[in-house]
Amino acid sequence: MRKLTTAIACLLVFSLVLAACGGKNNSNGSSSQPPSSASNSPSESASAPASDTGDSSAVDPTQLKATISIYYPTPDQIEKRALEDDKIKRFNQVFPNVEVVKSDWQYNPNEIGIKMGANEAPTLFNTYATEGKFLAEKGWAADITDLYNSYDKKDQLNPILLDQFNIDGKIYGIPQQGYVVGTVVNKKMIEDKGATVPPLNWTWDDVLNTAKAVADPSKGIAGIAPMGKGNEAGWNWTNFLFEAGGEIQAIEGGKVVAKFNSDAGLKALEFYSKLKESNVIPADWALGWGDAVGAFAQGRTAMVIAGPDGPLDQGLNQGGIKPENLLVYPMPAATSGGKHTGVLGGDFLVVNPNASKDEQYAAFQYAVFDYFSDKGLESIEANIQDRKKDNKYFVPPIIQYFKQDSEYGEKVKAVYNKYDNVYQYSDELMGLLDGKPEAQFNTQDYYAAMTNVIQEVFSKKSVNLKAQLDEAAKTVQSKFFDQIKVE
């Protein structure tokens, strides 16, 4: 398995440094796929529990008594549930008096307030990369800085991910995996039409021309399926905004100012309008993440925009598409020579601030239990082997919780390289990826506003694109950005 090289890791870190104020966003339209729990194996150097006295080294883990509820994968994630069950069993061998309760709640930004208010949120729950600032400011994520500082492997965590939950120098989340949004392409669908497969260093024109060559509306076949329902639509479109050189917002004079109704924003929306006019998107364009990825796996569209691992997993293991016919592309550059900028995001675990100190400690230890361990490698390898027995493929995330060039990263890479059912990301792809974090403030509300605009473009003819952008920016500015004071 070819992981992120040191060069691309540096590029991603550089993109993060350039991001406005180094802050994080307050919600997300989608992840690369529905957030998933990390599942490797036990940390053999689990430190002692943090009692209410604050002394994290005074209590034997075998004496810690607590009950924690944890994020548990959805029923469709059979392999991940099996891994989580094994992890719970091993965790209880180290922490025999900690009861681990499986929670079926999947993070939803529209539900977290209700869950917190009713004290029903799990002790350890999953969330998106964009939620750091939002959860921290609302008091819905525990400040785990002390737990982080006492973690002996903290220096090996991937800063590309960790930085997104570093709010004003305090840590509020535990990284699991990350992604840079790209485009997954069905090579066979293109070749079956006698069309030329575009180069990885592609442009918007290449996307449009490829989509035109493949689309067959009479048979329900689309060339590309941009998401058009839910906040995923705004999330998909933001990649094109970034590629055109645009920004979502800026901080000017202590105020947050909408910037997406710029010339770059208009250029990106014009491209979406071209896709619609060219009849290359699905007739039923109102697709959320699952709809669009499902259409791709079923061969009803040749291209889909997402974090690569989700479409790859469904295409390989549900759609039966051969790995040689699935290509991962970076997002296309607006013009030749431009950057292939994609939204940088990821999955995190957050500790409930309403939990006791011992419960928070136990939750943190559970979250990192498998990190950097030999048992973790064994668990990964067992997962790959189980998938191979079932004639299924293992698709790693592009960005892992650990540094890619670390000693542990090399060990993971060596495991991947032993098997032919591990999907291989190309070195050329890694060299082209350019990750850009999302907005610092009110990402969810911005996505929702842009989703309304995109639905106008996809459903109507002769839409005044600039007017639509200006109206969306005005709405986001007055309802949300104007309420923010930046110190």
Automatic annotation (TrEMBL):
Residues 25-59 are annotated as: Disordered. The keyword Signal applies. Residues 1-19 form the signal peptide. InterPro entries: Bact_solute-bd_prot1, SBP. Residues 25-51 have a biased composition (Low complexity). Keywords: Signal. The keyword Signal applies. This is Extracellular solute-binding protein. It comes from Cohnella terricola.
